[in-house]
């Protein structure tokens, strides 16, 4: 009877440890994929802005139009950074919540 109890207890402990390990790997993979997607978004924005600059440089424009255009490009970059920061913080909060809801034994 004692052996059965010990075996059942060991099985429960090992199963819970294995679940925590899987959750850790899933969180790590999500973070990696998020960073990868953010890097690609930055690359795409840079390409698009370079193309827009080259088109604008081919045309005559006033200094006001030029300043407005530069400001728009800057705002696009800031918006992208803000959105990516928010996504990263949301992922961190979700991971923290998951860890708190499943306390380690």
3D architecture notes:
The chain has helices at residues 2-57, 63-101. By secondary structure, it is mainly alpha-helical. It has one domain (24-101). Helix 1 runs antiparallel to helix 2. It starts with a helix and ends with a helix. 0% of the residues are buried. The mean pLDDT is 87.
Total E-strand runs: 0
> Roughly what is the average pLDDT, rounded to an integer?
87
Q: N- to C-terminal separation?
A: 24 Å
What gyration radius follows from the Cα positions, in whole Å? 25 Å
Strand count, sense and barrel status of the largest sheet are:
none
In total, the number of domains comes to 1
Structural class: mainly alpha
Segments where pLDDT lies below 50 for 5+ residues?
none
Fraction in beta strands: under 5%
Short description:
This protein has 2 helices and no strands. The chain is mostly helical.
Summarize the SSE layout with pairings.
Layout: H1 2-57, H2 63-101
Helix pairs in contact: 1-2
